[in-house]
Amino acid sequence: MPGDPFKNVTAGQRLEIPAAAYNAFLDAARFARVRLHETERDEDAAFRQTGIVKVRNASGEDLGRFAVVALNAPVITPTDNLQEFQNKVAFDGVKPTDPTKRERFAILLEPLAANAVGRGVVAGVTPVKLRVDPAQLYDFAAVEPDQTNWLRNTPHGSARVLWVEPGGSVERWAVVRLDDGDFEAHVLITGNVPDADGYYPGEVQRYDVATKTWQTLFACKVVDINR
After folding, report:
1. Reported pTM
2. Do both 40 and 58 map to the same domain?
């Protein structure tokens, strides 16, 4: 009766690999190779479909999990390598600079050392630290200049606050939903006389939390839907 082809070898023992064991090793290697490619393919598909992308920490310092980074240019552009650009979505993540410029941002899902690459949420629901005014909580949040540790609680912003930790502290954990809605934009009607087509003159404005002023983005025309 043949012995066990998968029996362990002791030190100093002559190595003899039975055909059954050798073939099993090859089958295992083939399976591992196929599974690796399937995992990479599934992972890339998940990033494209769920609002999670790869982010390279280009902030110049180590960042913790749930840190906030503004999105810069893609790590690999179409000019660099078109196939890699199409297959792997990845951005450089930097410190936010100016919320009024509608900086796109991500919340990191894992700690990242400087120049390391990891996952970040750009759309969907995620925990994040929130900087609040304990006397007045708002329904939205936005990035704060030169700050990666939290979002700032604001009257308008591209992150909707779903829940905020109760208490009187200035920094609190919150759950937010990131999307691409421009909740900071409002229309100011600048005249009460319509033009020949029935439109009123107006301006699209955005509130700057830092300076507490409204900034005009561009002129527009408004129709009175109540007429």
Report:
1. 0.63
2. no
Q: How many domains does the chain have?
A: 3
Q: Can you point out the beta strands (E) in 60-102?
A: 68-74, 90-94
CB 151 within 8 A of CB 127: no
Let me know whether 144 and 192 are in one domain.
no
Clarify whether residues 65 and 172 are in a common domain: yes
Residues 6+ apart with CB under 8 A from 162: 125, 174, 175, 176, 177
CA 144 to CA 146: how far, in whole Å?
6
Domain span holding position 34: 17-50
Q: What is the pLDDT along the chain (227 residues), one digit of tens a residue?
A: 456 666 676 776 676 777 777 777 777 878 777 776 655 555 555 455 568 999 999 999 999 999 999 999 999 999 999 998 888 889 999 999 876 566 789 999 999 999 999 999 999 999 999 999 998 888 888 898 899 999 999 877 789 999 999 988 999 999 999 976 555 567 888 888 888 888 889 887 877 766 788 888 767 888 877 76
Last residue of a domain, one of 50, 73, 94: 50
